[in-house]
Amino acid sequence: MTAPYIGHLPTGPRDAITDVAGVTVGHCTLAHDACQTGVTVVRPHAGNVYTDKVPAAASVLNGFGKSIGLVQVDELGVLETPIALTNTFSVGAVAQAQIRSAIADNPEIGRAWPTVNPLVFECNDGYLNDIQAMVVAGDHYARALNGAGVAVAQGAIGAGRGMSSFGVKGGIGTASRVVEHEGARYTVGALVLSNFGTPESLVLAGQHVGTELASRLAQTLAAPEKGSIIMIVATDAPLDARQLRRLSLRAGAGLARTGSVYGHGSGDIALAFSTAYTVPHGAASAMPAVAMLHEARLDPLFRAAADSVEQAIVHALWHAEAVIGRDGHRRESLRDVLKLS
């Protein structure tokens, strides 16, 4: 049984963020007893991201989060490292690993050249994972980075290993949508780290299944929203940073459709980037002369972003198997609880 399909737009060949040419994803999963966590890395292209930056922008829907690197992205509108996802207490270790990796490729960083802006997003996996153990190390980031490819595993893998959504197992999900408009064809892909939602709120492809889910989980009282979600949106459409911020905001439409209200304790952050061109690091190089899409042509991309994010969340729930972690805590799979398989 396949996951419910969101919207009417066609997918790319993999129905994944890697349908955007050049984008790759890698995971490193740590799954042993109380250790249920990991790292996921999204590479915007296969080259040197520090010297050939990609345009990007982020939207913070609710800022209950501990990410690093967003301030400079907001100021300069570019990425200069791959994007890393992990648990809350591992942000520092992964950021340091990103810095070391960038220095290895560019030895003048922090000397003759400016410093580098690491970009790490997080969600709290402390229910299943012994987050205080802080087991994620630089080598785990390196494994995820070096293992990045176009095939994207989903569910309880990488940074998603210990995540929970709607009272069941959450994790990594991805999807893509293709738009054709006025003779042009563009792909929008999304990858989410899903760790949000209360059982009674779940809407699955337009069907409110939350009441049934809460009943099957024997939940009688609605708990406050204390989870988070990170939403990464990639496109090959030529957009500048301002337009990419507009695109990132539409991730919130896909998130809301699943039943989220961006609760007080939820960190809901979306980042969008374009692979249509790169921005050179060196001032001696000319800035790219790229014709950006007109604002009036963005609507199909907005729809594709909302649909691909919603689909990615559905995929995260659909592919995640049950996990037992810290102190015997357990999260069942959505498919098992609702008997969907």
From TrEMBL:
Keywords assigned by UniProt, alphabetized: Aminopeptidase, Hydrolase, Protease
UniProt-listed Enzyme Commission number(s): 3.4.11.25
Pfam families given in the database record: Peptidase_S58 (PF03576)
Enzyme class: hydrolase
Superkingdom, taxonomy of origin: Bacteria
GO molecular function: aminopeptidase activity
Entry keyword annotation includes Protease: yes
UniProt similarity note: Belongs to the peptidase S58 family.
Protein name per Swiss-Prot or TrEMBL: Beta-peptidyl aminopeptidase BapA
Organism: Cupriavidus pampae
